[in-house]
Amino acid sequence: MTTLPDSLVVYLIPEDGGRFELYSEPPDRPGVPAGPPDGFWSRRLRVLETKWHVAVEAARRAGAPGLLARLRDRAIRSAAKAIDEQRTLWRLRDADAATLVYPRGLAESAAVELSRMLLARARRHHAWWLAIDGIAFAVSGVLAIVPGPNVIAYYFALRAVGHFLSLRGAQRGLGALAWHARPGQAGDDPRVILAHPAADD
Question: String of b and e for 96-131 (b: at least 16 CB within 10 Å)?
């Protein structure tokens, strides 16, 4: 089965220890011209995006000298991985259909079952952390009497929003979203294709 038009492509990525993760490519930013962006905030956003991508690529290259540099790179890699994981759930919220692309050595029924287990686990995880961060945000409100911005409240608010969006995505993926599945093929994420090469490759 091929990928349907306007379908969100979600890859079932094998990882170490026999684990799997759901992953989707970063979306294109519609309406953003290829040339220099107009407006102050658009320019700032483009600069921040560029700096972040440069930092992630540098962090993924091994061999940074010094303990602090290695800790920094590890933190950047962890943040990038968390963004990748939550991005897939965030995109599921607004998708009308999704195509699950799975390793070719895996049966379709097993791939679909794995994806549903991952979504159910994500739903439990983000519901739990939404509750915790919501409580922490409420408690941090007592710091409003301190002059200046309540940075702690902002931190927990952002975390709560992220978990809420992820929870909504997991719920939609398990509910009304129309899913289709197909094995990996040329042009797909190489981690899927190389996981279980076809016999005729």
Answer: eebbbbbbbebeeeebbebbeebbeebbeebbebbe
Q: What is the Cα–Cα distance from 164 to 186, expressed in whole angstroms?
A: 35
DSSP letter, residue 165:
H
- pLDDT digits 0-9 by tens, 44-65: 666 666 766 777 777 777 666 6
Contact in structure between 92 and 172 (CB atoms under 8 Å): yes
Can you tell me the distance from the alpha carbon of 112 to that of 180, in angstroms, rounded to the nearest whole number?
Answer: 9
User: For the chain, which residues make up each domain, given as ranges?
Assistant: 8-29+38-193
Q: How far apart are CA 134 and CA 184, in angstroms?
A: 39
At 113, which helix (H) or strand (E)? Answer: helix 108-140
The encoded tokens of residue 116 equal: 């549903």
- Provide CB contacts within 8 A for 99, sequence distance 6+: 3, 4, 7, 8, 9, 10, 179, 180, 181, 182
pTM over 0.90: no
How confident is the model over 103-128, as pLDDT tens digits? 988 899 999 999 999 999 999 999 99
> For strand 97-102 and strand 178-183, is the pairing parallel, antiparallel, or unpaired?
parallel
Residue listed under structure tokens 């992820």: 166
